[in-house]
Amino acid sequence: KSTLLKILLGRIEPNSGTIQRGEFEIGYFDQHREMLDDDKSIVETFLPKGGDRVDVQGKSMHIYAYLKSFLFPEEYLQKKVGLLSGGEKNRVALALLMTKKVNCLILDEPTNDLDIQTINILEEKLLNFQGALIFVSHDRYFIDKIASKLLIFKGNAIVEESFQNYSEYLSIEKNINELYEMEKDIKKEVVKPKENTQIKKKTKLSYKDQRDLERLPTIIEKLEEKIAQINQCLYDPKCYEERGLVTVADELKKLEKEYDEVSDRYLEVLELQEELEL
Questions:
Q1: All residues at 6 or more sequence positions from 250 whose CB lies less than 8 Å from its CB, including other chains
Q2: Contact present, 74 and 113 (Cβ < 8 Å)
Q3: For residue 95, what are the contacts with CB-CB under 8 A and spacing of at least 6?
Q4: If pLDDT is split at 50, 70 and 90, which confidence band does 180 have?
Q5: In this structure, what is the dihedral angle of CA atoms 153, 158, 162, 165, given to the nearest 10 degrees?
Q6: Is the model's pLDDT at 148 over the cut of 60?
Q7: In the 8-state DSSP scheme, what is residue 80?
Q8: pTM
Q9: Alpha helices (H) in the chain, listed in sequence order
Q10: How far apart are CA 122 and CA 178, in angstroms?
């Protein structure tokens, strides 16, 4: 993912394909803080030519007031960047980025080494930013709050696009994985009766039949819930557009097939039980 950002920035070339860039002025923040010079003081970092005011998205601010909003006390302003902690360097880098005249920000793991208070400041600055924002992050809560669109890298050159927040996406993925696991269980448990095979008279249900009798109603109930959810999705344009109408329809078809197989098996063991009770 960090490699993709560097390709977008033009720092490295892709192995194949082309990159089309619009009329963007890009500001870049990386987790290694490459933009900072350890030998400069904080003030020198922001005002290399001297002065006491910085321009922040078209607004002139005194350097002390601006850096105070990033939790830097006045006595820190003459401190060398190289003497700062990792979290403090991140704050300097973010504050510096916000002074650039850009209309697109690209951030690589921006919340690394930041405490909660600093993350709150970062979120506020980014939500107020008027341009485009592209970032890589593993921070679920940060993604939920800031991102309006997700690109999910699944591996094997598969990239999914989603307009849900990250927590909702993970919840759907979990449900789909549960369905796949349920499908595996059903295929293991469901045994179709052979044609022209007479059922021998038994005095009691086998262990497997008794187990199916007890557990299949729960599986049937879960399948009914999943089928109802997907049917509801088919009547919600936002839902099926995000997930893909063909994908949703295929899921429904698969679930209905599983439901029929499980129901047939359950009826089979019910009939066996009734025969034993005669």
A1: none
A2: no
A3: 46, 66, 67, 70, 72
A4: low
A5: -20
A6: yes
A7: B
A8: 0.57
A9: 2-9, 42-46, 63-68, 86-97, 116-128, 140-146, 166-189, 207-234, 237-243, 245-277
A10: 36
Task: Give yes or no for a contact between 276 and 204, defined as CB atoms under 8 angstroms apart.
Answer: yes
Rg of the chain over Cα atoms, rounded to whole angstroms, equals: 29
As a whole number of angstroms, the distance between CA 57 and CA 48 comes to: 19
List all residues 6 or more positions away from 148 whose beta carbon is below 8 Å from its beta carbon.
Answer: 163
10 Å CB burial of residue 226 (0-12, 13-18, 19+) is buried
What are the structure tokens assigned to 182, written together? Answer: 């349920």
- What's the pLDDT tens digit per position in 95-141? 998 898 888 999 888 887 778 888 888 899 899 888 899 998 888 88
Q: Give the separation between CA 263 and CA 61, rounded to whole angstroms.
A: 70
CA atoms within 13 A on the CB side of 103: 4
| Residue 39: per-residue pLDDT | 93
| Angular region, 70: left φ>0, alpha ψ -120 to 50, beta rest | alpha
With contact defined as beta carbons under 8 Å apart, do 266 and 211 qualify? no
pLDDT for the residue 138: 85
Of 145, 164, 178, 177, the residue nearest 236 (C-alpha): 164
Look up residue 41 and give its DSSP letter: B
- Helix axis angle, 207-234 to 166-189, nearest 10°: 140
Domain 2-147, classified CATH 3.20.20.10, yes or no: no
* Structure tokens given for 125: 């600055």
pLDDT in tens, 17-68: 888 877 888 888 876 567 789 999 999 999 998 889 999 878 899 999 999 9
